[in-house]
Write a structure and sequence with these properties.
17% strand; alpha/beta; Rossmann fold
């Protein structure tokens, strides 16, 4: 079904992100994990580190590409020839923000579709922000919410090695 873009800061990458990604690969021939620089959030990991985490986890899966972009997502998606944007919805609280973003994206690029995926129930409460909080104080307990390479990087970053 073509190319889709799954964009986010992925700071850090969580198993919930991966769940949404793998759901998208069942529908699209290629999914680009587009890592945003996050000028306003003050990321814990650099864009290059975040891209490397994804590449390590997805090694061997030729359906998944990992790139970065700067600027408007819909412009990047159009340049890449994407037919859709992938977004994850964990809870009702995500809906209002995602709805507004989708409407703006439609205004800017009417031909671009947004497709929402809900992660497995075990990841509905998992967010990068919560993972970082748990990792800061109790890294052993956050390990089930992130891939192993990310868990190791979080432990190191917070001095728990």
């Amino acid at each position: 079904m073509g190319l889709a873009i799954y964009a986010g800061t992925f700071d850090p990458l969580t198993n919930g992100h991966l769940d949404v990604l793998y759901r998208a690969t069942r529908i699209f021939d290629t999914v680009v994990m587009a890592v945003a620089p996050s000028h306003t959030k003050g990321p814990l990991f650099s864009v290059q580190e975040r891209m490397e985490f994804i590449r390590e986890v997805c090694v061997g899966n030729e359906q998944i590409l990992v790139e970065t972009f700067d600027g408007l997502l819909v412009d990047y998606a159009k340049e890449r020839g994407a037919t859709a944007l992938i977004r994850g919805l964990r809870a009702v609280s995500d809906f209002e923000y995602e709805f507004q973003m989708t409407q703006m994206n439609r205004e800017l690029q009417p031909e671009m579709e947004t497709i929402f995926f809900m992660p497995s129930q075990e990841y509905t409460f998992t967010s990068s922000s919560l993972v970082k909080q748990v990792a800061r104080f109790d890294p052993e307990r956050m390990a089930k919410y992130v891939p192993l390479n990310v868990a190791a990087a979080l432990k190191k970053r917070f001095g728990h090695s």
